[in-house]
């Protein structure tokens, strides 16, 4: 019996879409070609930013791209260091003056004690102990707030007027005082760790 060659099926062969026979080795080559094509497609799909980043990672130190990247890195480090120092200063200042608002609210208490002591003239002996008690209370109060950095602004009649720590509320003419000297103290001023929280209110002499 005669064999029909058209009906023969190769044992190890395969047909492609056109009916042509190709072996496994050819199939492997096609697969390899497909993989290479995919890799090439992946490389081509990289954006300009990604290519630039890859270049920055592998360029030589003398390349302009490397110098540009190094400059950007150094500027970023400098900016980060400046921010760190600024935050540290702000944190230290916040801790230093954390009690300013509380101490400022206590100033009227000191003002009332000063006012009470300013009107102690011509008192009889029965009131002297009361005045001594008020004076001691004021001193204890000042010692307590001094422990938190609050001190009285230096001021006295006859001192030169200092606009940095004094506030002029009016002028007077006192022959015994020179021009621009303090003639009267209206209200005491206070400093908190070197920072003025309230100037001393005074009358200034104008010759």
Strand content: 15-25%
Following the backbone from N to C, one meets helices and strands in this order, namely EEHHHHHEEEEEE
What's the CATH topology label of the largest domain? Nucleotide Exchange Factor Grpe, Chain A, domain 2
What's the end-to-end separation, in Å? Answer: 148 Å
- Quantity of strands, as a count: 8
Number of helices: 5
CATH superfamily of the largest domain: Head domain of nucleotide exchange factor GrpE
The oligomeric status of these chains comes to single chain
- Portion of residues within helices: 40-55%
- Kindly provide the radius of gyration, computed on alpha-carbon positions and rounded to a whole number of angstroms: 45 Å
> What is the structural class?
alpha+beta
């Amino acid at each position: 019996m005669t064999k029909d060659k058209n009906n023969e099926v190769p044992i190890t062969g395969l047909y492609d879409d056109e009916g042509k026979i190709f072996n496994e080795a050819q199939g492997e080559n096609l697969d390899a070609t497909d993989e290479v094509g995919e890799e090439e497609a992946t490389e081509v799909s990289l954006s300009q930013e990604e290519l630039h980043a890859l270049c920055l990672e592998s360029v030589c130190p003398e390349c302009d791209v490397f110098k540009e990247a190094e400059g950007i890195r150094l500027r970023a480090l400098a900016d980060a260091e400046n921010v760190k120092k600024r935050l540290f200063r702000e944190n230290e200042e916040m801790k230093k003056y954390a009690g300013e608002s509380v101490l400022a609210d206590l100033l009227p208490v000191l003002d009332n004690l000063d006012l009470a002591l300013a009107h102690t003239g011509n008192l009889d002996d029965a009131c002297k102990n009361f005045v001594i008690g008020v004076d001691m209370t004021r001193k204890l109060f000042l010692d307590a707030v001094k422990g938190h950095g609050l001190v009285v602004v230096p001021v006295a009649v006859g001192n030169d007027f200092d606009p940095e720590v004094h506030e002029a509320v009016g002028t007077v003419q006192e022959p015994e005082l020179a021009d621009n000297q303090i003639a009267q103290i209206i209200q005491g001023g206070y400093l908190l760790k070197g920072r003025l929280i309230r100037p001393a209110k005074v009358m200034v002499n104008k010759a």
